[in-house]
Design a protein that fits this description.
By secondary structure, the chain is an all-alpha fold. Helices cover 53% and strands 0% of the residues. The chain is built from 5 helices and no strands. Helix 4 crosses helix 5.
């Protein structure tokens, strides 16, 4: 009987250690990378090659292709916390780049996670407000 209690105790300890380790790993995986000059430079190039035609060179949603679209592109110059979808959450920008936005011309992009973060930081640069 005593052996069962000791065994149960150690099993509980092991389960707790494993679950806390998994939680820590998941937290690190979900944490955005630091916004470095190199990452931002990569984001600027990606923006020029993939976004400028709709969102414009100034991020104001007035790219040359914007006039053709039924739903106008996001104006990134608005305060960041006022952006319709992300509302100040940079992780939501990352998700939009990953999945696109339904019922809008915003398609998903087949970029690496690093490229998505680079682009997210680039579009946040246009904002007049502070990001989280």
């Amino acid at each position: 009987m005593r052996q069962n209690r000791v065994l149960n105790f150690w099993c509980l300890i092991m389960v707790w250690l494993i679950s806390s380790s998994c939680a820590s790993i998941l937290e690190k995986l979900n944490k955005p990378p630091e916004n470095t000059p190199e990452l931002l430079s990569q984001g600027r190039k990606l923006y020029e090659n993939n976004c400028v035609q709709c969102h414009g060179p100034n991020g104001d949603g007035k790219g040359w292709k914007a006039a053709e679209l039924k739903k106008k592109p996001r104006d990134f110059s608005l305060p960041f916390d006022q952006w319709t979808y992300s509302k100040g959450d940079r992780k939501k920008i990352f998700e939009v780049l990953k999945t696109g936005l339904p019922d809008t011309p915003m398609a998903m992009f087949h970029f690496t996670d690093e490229q998505r973060w680079a682009l997210a930081y680039r579009v946040m640069e246009f904002s007049r407000g502070k990001a989280d």
